[in-house]
Description:
Blueprint: H1 10-34, H2 39-42, H3 53-72, H4 86-101, H5 105-108, E1 115-120, E2 123-128, H6 129-154, H7 161-165
Antiparallel strand pairs: 1-2
Helix pairs in contact: 1-3, 1-4, 1-6, 3-4, 3-6
Amino acid sequence: MPLSMYQASVPIFTQVLAALGNVMGKAEAYAAAKKFDPAVLIAARLAPDMLPLGRQVQLASDFAKGAAARLSGSDIPSWPDTEKTFAELQGRIKRTLDYIQAFKPEAIDGSEARDVAVKVAGRELTFKGQPYLLQFVMPNFYFHATTAYAILRHNGVELGKRDFMGNVPGLTI
């Protein structure tokens, strides 16, 4: 059976975003245990010219909800990027999960050849559905989720690969 557009998107977004929500919980607990302001972690960056943790989480969310919407031909919900606390970031992750999990496979399947337009740095790019998902969305989604994880790990939060991977269906360790 071929891999469908739904299978290549929503379950992956769900797994990684759920894991990211758990990682945010560990980061908040770490700040409490070490008795420092959690805002320090939310503002942390890997390098001076990179975006901070909070923005990385927002962008991972944006790529997931944007892909589900665009591939289904739906309007993308607009959420302000105002999260300043771990609770607010976890709320955004939950809102994203609720949004993408509401899509049925038939809403996204068959979108391989759908025209998808995206504004990037003021330019409009047009893709077909499959290259949009596999060559644009997924690399960007993983980049921002991985960078969020790396920022926290770099700042001492005890995380491992299983934290990043989250619940992998069918995998028993």
